[in-house]
Amino acid sequence: MVQPKGTSPAAVTTPPPSPRSSPRSPSPCSANDDRLQLRACLAPGCVLYFLKNHPRREWCTAACGNRARGARHYRRHRRPPT
Predict the structure, then answer these.
(1) Has this prediction a pTM greater than 0.85?
(2) Burial of 67 from C-beta contacts in 10 A (0-12 / 13-18 / 19+)
(3) DSSP bridge partners of 50
(4) What is the phi/psi pair of residue 4, to 5°?
(5) Which residues of the chain have pLDDT under 70?
(6) Measured between alpha carbons, how far is residue 79 from residues 11, 34, 82 in Å?
(7) Helix (H) or strand (E) holding 40
(8) Quick one: which of 33, 37, 60 has its CA closest to 49?
(9) Which 3 state secondary structure label does DSSP give 30?
(10) How far is CA 43 from CA 17, 18, 50, 60, 71, in A?
(11) DSSP bridge pairs for 40
(12) Of 9, 28, 65, 81, which one has the greatest count of Cβ atoms within 10 A?
């Protein structure tokens, strides 16, 4: 960033982002085609998204993966109602 003459680095600010973006303006993800890899986490109760950088990745974090595997195990091994 170029700083105007006679100002301190703290005085130089960038304008805040516009609350509305143009429909034609590119989003940060679409610039390098990461939007094709954007996925929702498959863990129960998780609302996060992540970039799928491995073909087998299904969760945003290891904790979500553990929770999903635990829920799957519980569904398989619970006793039927008597």
Answers:
(1) no
(2) middle
(3) 39
(4) -60, 150
(5) 1-35, 81-82
(6) 66, 43, 8
(7) strand 38-40
(8) 60
(9) helix
(10) 33, 34, 12, 8, 9
(11) 49
(12) 65
